[in-house]
Write a structure and sequence with these properties.
It contains 15 helices and 32 strands. By secondary structure, it is α+β, with helices and mostly antiparallel strands. Helix 2 (372-384) packs across helix 3 (410-443), helix 4 (502-508) packs across helix 5 (510-519) and helix 10 packs antiparallel against helix 15 (869-876). The structure holds adenine.
Amino acid sequence: MHLFLLLILQVIAAFGQIDPTHCRYALGMEDGRIKDDDITASSQWYETTAPHYARFNREEGDGAWCPEGQLEPSDSQYLQVDLGRLTFLTVVGTQGRYARNSGKEYARAYRLNYSRDGLLWKSWRNRLGNPVMDANKNAYTSVINDLHPPIITRYIRLIPVTKLSTTVCMRVELYGCPWDDGLISYSAPEGQLMMPPGYPSASLNDSTYDGAHERRRLFGGLGQLTDGVIGLDNFLLTRQYNVWPGYDYLGWRNDSLGTQGYVEMEFVFDRQRNFTSMKVHSNNMFSRGVKIFSSVSCWFKPRLIAGWEVEPVVFKTVLDDRNPSARYVTVPLNRHTAKSLRCRFYFADVWMMFSEISFQSVFCPSEDTILPTQMTLVVTTPLASQESTVTPIPETAANPSASVPPEGNTAILIGCLVTIILLLVIVIFLILWCQYVCKVLEKAPRRIHDEEMTVRLSSCSDTIILQTPPVPPRSGHGPSGPANTDPHYERVFLLDPQYQNPAMLRNKLPELSQSAEASACGGGYAEPDVTQCTPHQCFHNSAPHYAETDIVRLQGVTGSNMYAVPALTVDSLTRKDISAAEFPRQQLIFREKLGEGQFGEVHLCEAEGLLEFLGEGSPLPDREGHSVLVAVKQLRADATSQARNDFLKEIKIMSRLNDPNIIRLLCVCVSSDPLCMVTEYMENGDLNMFLSQREIESTLTHANNIPSVSLSNLLHMSVQIASGMKYLASLNFVHRDLATRNCLLDRRLTIKIADFGMSRNLYSSDYYRIQGRAVLPIRWMAWESILLGKFTTASDVWAFGVTLWEIFTLCKEQPYSLLSDEQVIENSGEFFRNQGRQIFLYAPPLCPPSLFELMMCCWSRDIPNRPSFEGLFQALRPHVNQ
Ligand code: ADE
């Protein structure tokens, strides 16, 4: 039972963290879940432009909210929305007054003020301190602004901003999700500056903190510890662009806080809550003197006006001197009841750095009637007969202890008991269901791997359908919706054993199967005129969609990718298959970690004597006496034998690729463990990180020294990727995971396509998990890859279109960022049906129209209508240096 309760705690804890990339739900302006009474304003021009007409995409009244009179530059007119509860607000959408083409008023810019309690108002600023957001350019187009940082609030005010006297009207949608943590403020010592000799200094302050700063402490606000941004392993690198090293972390130096050896923080909550755990995301880069805390003691205060309970909960961590990864440390809080917490985090090294703190709790039904110990009971009654300890039990990290039930409050107790029993039944059901599903997966013919489920298609006729989890109901679709009555299309579930058999699948989905056959000839598809997307004849042959060249006559896996080629028995791969030379591993000197993935890590290393080792034909520039820097991908010692084989196969494939725009394998260390592959080092990292940290070149970027790229740089990057892909396509080699995260840049901005599978951690939200196993880049995948598991050069072309889109949005947004993963899968069904309901990626403002047309061709529903890489290369090349 203990085990079971721990399991429940873990389940609860798993839900206890906000992921800003997924917390983007419309909060109810458009659909009316936000009531008229909750939408107010500083003024309104007419009854027909009252605040409740500020609903997004709606046309009631005179079509929008308009404040009274002309808006002056000095005005602070506002539209206020009460969200009814604390909310993690991530996106704001605005429109002007369109009124069926009779309106023309809109806000060109706005500011945001917010309040968690309706009394104290704060002004929002972006991460660079700018409070004003650009908004609409006409009365009808919606403009969606991501909030960086997001806002935790209940009340929000949109304040239109103008430079000239003008009339302004607005319609609005707010996006986010409930803030279930309930944390309304934390206090902590101010973060500090780290100035290591020979390295850039890192400013470890809380730069978005919205409370007060007093005597070197932060009071009464929230900031970077609750913005949902998790710091990287190397605290000097940041997830945000245009910010300084150390930005993602709040950090302190041990000796700077007196001799106490700890950092004290206080956390205040919206109401009394029953705490199961606290999760602290902590850096552990011990090579720079940073470690997670050695222990933490937390005291509880049941009400605001009450003393601290005497006994703290103490939790000791297991320190880790081997793995420098940043990590979440989960501190069990033993279901203590409190309205505020005070925690002391003890240093384990010179520095301690946190990027996020979250709390997992349930709130107490009534603060006045239930005592803290009674609340403890609410969660743990099943254990009450076994244990009799009352309130805090020190150093009992894993002990889900309980209290004896006091007399009285019987009704509440019974209600709680029933709730708990129901919860237990649901959890048991979920566990049994998971076990059943896992069994089905295991039984499936070896198409499904232990580590991940990847769909292989080795010929036109070998079709597998990916399961999609139940999709939120949407008009006309969904498992139980009208779509099921559509004779041509049915949602299919991969885990259903019948779909493991392609013949059965075709019976079930005749239309899909026809389409699959028609499109499965992707390997031999003709090269259309790239600018016109005209349909071309598709070869009907039974040949696989890859060429049987020597180079790809094996199944290649890079990261979690599988190249769609005929099966080679795994065991037959031996050292003699690998043409790269064995390099003495003791000559590789570790410098720093570049990335980490499911199966291993990538390190930056100095390779002593590599130039001499490679001899005449070395592709590396001569660094005149300097040792050579290389990237070393190393397989984890505990990797499965499947991962090991995949690693060797990746080496074999890479050793035979030779193109200026494909990452070069230099040598390997495979004679002993851990297996390593050594590739050229790309100084500018991956293209996604590179672009997301830059703005488009302008006089402003020049004047302010802001890192920038020009349009011509972007076009040159696109051409290089097209060129690398042209080479792969000429070998009939299917990449399967083309995206900016898998393109690397050297110091001269040469791009090389790679896929080490190591970006999975950093970019985990780009991949879609099925049953926690399959990892698929669904936002880059063609509809036939999602629905039929079919990967071809033509689906690489689709991904190339998405990659172009990323490039011209400077990687500031994830593709289809407003769609959930399930909706992306649903959208691929719309692509298949092709009834005009599919959602395309929008034209990035930077992107020349002809280039957007090219992207749209890449997303043609019918495979023969998609351009070839040769065609794309030829179409893009003339744009460079114009
Ligand atoms: N990350 C993964 N591989 C890399 C490489 N070759 N160069 C730089 N960063 C990398």
